[in-house]
Design goal:
This protein is mainly α. The protein has 21 helices and four strands. The two termini are 33 Å apart.
Length: 509
C-alpha cells in the first residue's frame, strides 16, 4: 500500500462503519450519556458508581470507539455535578474520589485501540515531539525527588493520560465525528452557562452548597456580594475553561452550513459569553478574546504577522473597552463585572494576578535550569499534596510546570510542542476555514499554557484529541494528489497563495 493510501486508511477506513451516522448517532450519544448518569445516581456512592459503570464503558469502548469518543465530552462536562449528587465513595484513589478513574480508563482503552489501528504510523515532527514529551512524563514518574512512587503515578493520571488522546485523534476521529464533537461542546457549554448563572444570581442548590462545605472550597468568593460560579464542573477554573472553548465552538459554527437553529444560535452564543464574563475568571476572558482575534485572522487567511496583529489587537481592544466601561456598580452583577474590569484594564496593576503568575512561571523555568532532571511528574499536580511532603508546587501555567516537573528537557520539548501545535492548528484552520479548523486554533489559544493542566478534566483531553486529529488530517491533505493546496504540510512550512502566484514564506519561489 502506498503512503498516501495508508494515511487515508488510518484516518477514514478504520472503524468507518462501526457506529451510525447523522441523527441516530446523536440519539446514541444522548441515550448512553443518560444511562451513565442514571447509573451514577442509582448506585448511591462513587465507589458503587465505578464498580457498575467501568465494566459498561469498557464494553462500549471495545464495541464502538466512535460512540465512546462522542459520549466522553458529555460525561466529563457533567462529572462535577455527578460527584455532587452522589455521596463520596471513600478515600481510595489518587484524588480520594474513585469516580475520576472512569475517564482515564476510557482514554487508555481508546489509546490501545488507536495504536492498534496505526496511530503512530506516518509520524510528523509534531507527533514525534508529543511522543517524546510523553516518554519524559513517564520516566519522570519514577523521579525520587517527588517523594513517593504514588505521587508520580498520580501525576501520570493528570498529565500523561490526557496526552494519550493525541493518538486517539490521529486514528479514530474523522471529519464527521470532529464536527459532532464541536457541536457537543457548544451545547454543553450552553447548559453549563445557564446552570452557572443560576448559581450566581439565584443561589446555590443544596448539593452545591454541601460540596463547598465538605471540600473546603473557599476560593469562590468575589468580594462580599458574589461568588465564582462552577456550573456542572469540579472547580470554577474548569468551568471558565469550558465556557471559553464553548464560546469558541459557537463562533466557529456560525457558518451557513453549520449554524444551529438560526437566530437561536446568536442567543446561545450571547448566553455563553455572558456566563463567561460573570464567571469573573480574568485569565479566561483575556485568552478567549485572544482566541477570537486569532480565529478571525485565520478566517481571513492572514500571514503570521497578521495573526499576531489580530490576536494582540483583540486583547488591546478588550483592555480599552474594559478601561472605559469602568467600575462602581453594586450588587452581584456589579461585583463580578468590577472584578473583571479591574484586572483586565490594568493587567499589571495591584488588582491583577498576572504579575504573580509571571513571577511563579519564571521561578518554575529557573528551577528547570537549576535542576535539569526535574522533580518528577507528580510534583505539579494534586497528587503531590496528597502523597508527598515536598514543598514543590505547580505554577498554574505549563512553562513553569514543565521546568519544575521535567527539568530542562521538558522545557525544550514543550517549546517545540507549542511551536508545532500553533503552526499545525493555524495551517489547518487557514486551509479548511470550516468549523472544525477554526475551533481547533480557537480552543488552543483560549487554553494557552494550560494544555497539560489535568485538573481541567473536561478540557485538557479534548485539546490533545483535536491536536492529534488535525495533525493527521493535515498530513492526509498534504499527501493528497489534489492540486493547489492553499498551505503545505507542517513539515513544509507556510505557503501562501495570492491571485496568480504561489509563494513560500522565506523564499523567492
Amino acid at each position: 500500500m502506498s503512503q498516501v493510501s495508508s494515511v487515508r486508511a488510518a484516518g477514514t477506513a478504520e472503524g468507518a462503519v462501526e457506529s451510525p451516522r447523522g441523527p441516530s448517532a446523536w440519539l446514541l450519544v444522548a441515550l448512553a450519556s443518560a444511562g451513565c448518569i442514571a447509573i451514577a445516581l442509582v448506585s448511591g456512592t462513587h465507589l458503587g458508581l465505578v464498580l457498575v459503570v467501568i465494566p459498561i464503558v469498557i464494553a462500549m469502548t471495545w464495541q464502538s470507539p466512535r460512540t465512546m469518543i462522542a459520549v466522553m465530552p458529555v460525561w466529563m462536562a457533567l462529572l462535577g455535578l455527578v460527584r455532587r449528587l452522589t455521596p463520596g465513595g471513600g478515600n481510595i484513589t489518587f484524588s480520594g474520589d474513585p469516580v475520576l478513574l472512569i475517564g482515564p480508563v476510557v482514554i487508555i482503552l481508546l489509546f490501545i485501540i488507536a495504536m492498534s489501528r496505526g496511530a503512530s504510523q506516518n509520524r510528523t515532527r509534531f507527533a514525534t515531539v508529543v511522543g517524546s514529551l510523553s516518554i519524559i512524563a513517564l520516566l519522570e514518574a519514577f523521579n525520587p525527588k517527588q517523594g513517593t512512587l504514588l505521587t508520580g503515578l498520580g501525576g501520570l493520571l493528570f498529565i500523561l493520560v490526557p496526552m494519550l488522546a493525541f493518538w486517539i485523534g490521529r486514528a479514530l476521529v474523522d471529519d464527521e465525528l470532529a464536527l459532532q464533537l464541536v457541536k457537543t461542546v457548544a451545547i454543553l457549554s450552553l447548559i453549563a452557562s445557564v446552570y452557572g448563572l443560576i448559581q450566581q444570581f439565584h443561589g446555590l442548590p443544596s448539593w452545591d452548597q454541601r460540596w463547598i462545605s465538605t471540600k473546603g472550597y473557599s476560593a469562590l468568593a468575589v468580594g462580599q456580594a458574589a461568588i465564582h460560579a462552577f456550573g456542572t464542573f469540579s472547580s470554577a477554573q474548569e468551568y471558565a475553561a469550558f465556557l471559553s472553548i464553548g464560546l469558541v465552538a459557537w463562533l466557529a459554527l456560525l457558518g451557513k452550513s453549520t449554524r444551529m437553529l438560526g437566530p437561536l444560535h446568536v442567543v446561545a452564543t450571547a448566553t455563553v459569553a455572558t456566563a463567561l464574563w460573570f464567571e469573573s475568571e480574568r485569565t479566561a476572558v483575556f485568552l478567549t478574546v485572544l482566541a477570537i482575534g486569532v480565529m478571525f485572522a485565520a478566517r481571513l487567511r492572514l500571514r503570521p504577522i497578521g495573526v499576531i496583529a489580530g490576536g494582540v489587537g483583540a486583547v488591546f481592544l478588550l483592555i480599552f473597552v474594559a478601561g472605559h466601561f469602568g467600575a462602581g456598580a453594586s450588587g452581584t452583577a456589579g461585583a463580578l463585572s468590577n472584578h473583571v474590569v479591574k484586572g483586565v484594564s490594568g493587567p499589571f496593576s495591584a488588582g491583577s494576578s498576572l504579575p504573580g503568575h509571571i513571577r511563579a512561571t519564571k521561578l518554575g523555568i529557573r528551577q528547570g535550569i537549576v535542576n535539569p532532571f526535574g522533580h518528577g511528574t507528580g510534583t505539579v499536580t494534586i497528587a503531590s499534596n496528597r502523597y508527598s511532603h515536598s514543598r514543590t508546587v505547580g505554577t498554574e501555567f505549563d512553562p513553569g510546570n514543565m521546568g519544575i516537573a521535567f527539568g530542562i528537557f521538558g522545557l525544550i520539548f514543550y517549546v517545540l510542542l507549542v511551536w508545532y501545535a500553533i503552526k499545525t492548528t493555524y495551517i489547518a484552520a487557514v486551509r479548511r476555514r470550516d468549523a472544525v479548523g477554526l475551533f481547533g486554533i480557537g480552543m488552543l489559544m483560549a487554553t494557552l499554557f494550560q494544555w497539560t493542566n489535568g485538573d481541567l478534566y473536561s478540557v485538557c483531553w479534548l485539546i490533545w484529541l483535536f491536536l492529534g486529529y488535525l495533525d493527521m488530517a493535515l498530513l492526509r491533505g498534504a499527501a493528497s494528489p489534489e492540486p493547489e493546496p492553499v498551505l503545505a504540510s507542517p513539515e513544509a512550512g507556510f505557503t501562501w497563495r495570492r491571485p496568480g502566484e504561489v509563494r513560500r514564506q522565506g523564499t523567492g519561489e
